[in-house]
Amino acid sequence: MSAIFWQYSYLQVLDFLTTLAFLLVGVREGNPVVRLVIELAPSPIFGLLTIKVLALGLGIFSLMSGRFRLLQRMNLVFALVVAWNLVALIVGAAKLRPFL
User: Fold this and answer.
1) What is the pLDDT of residue 61?
2) Are 21 and 84 spatial neighbours (Cβ–Cβ below 8 Å)?
3) Can you give the pLDDT at residue 50?
4) 22-26 CB contacts, 8 Å cutoff, 24+ apart
5) Residue 15 CB: number of other CB atoms within 10 A?
6) Number of CB atoms found within 10 A of residue 41's CB
7) d(CA 92, CA 78)
8) 10 Å Cβ neighbour count for 61?
9) How far is CA 59 from CA 15, 50, 81, 90, in A?
10) Can you tell me the distance from the alpha carbon of 42 to that of 84, in angstroms, rounded to the nearest whole number?
């Protein structure tokens, strides 16, 4: 498989883990579509997994159809999303236990 797709898959895992972490500290999901799926799912983890399976399907479709530039752009977007998730996690954790 393409290195671009492996990067995409890795970023999906990081997005899943960081989203799960900030939900655990009480930060609300910012994406309205993801928030709706999480709220409608039997559990937040199942909702997140559903979103990630759909995202991986989109990545596979992009790979199979030769849309490598689209995958590169999605990698950039998800790298920014993961960075944002980390900031949300830090801010959320700091509200629970201020250390500064």
Assistant:
1) 96
2) no
3) 96
4) 22/85, 22/88, 22/89, 22/92, 25/89, 25/92, 25/93, 25/96, 26/92, 26/95, 26/96
5) 21
6) 15
7) 20
8) 11
9) 14, 14, 16, 29
10) 26
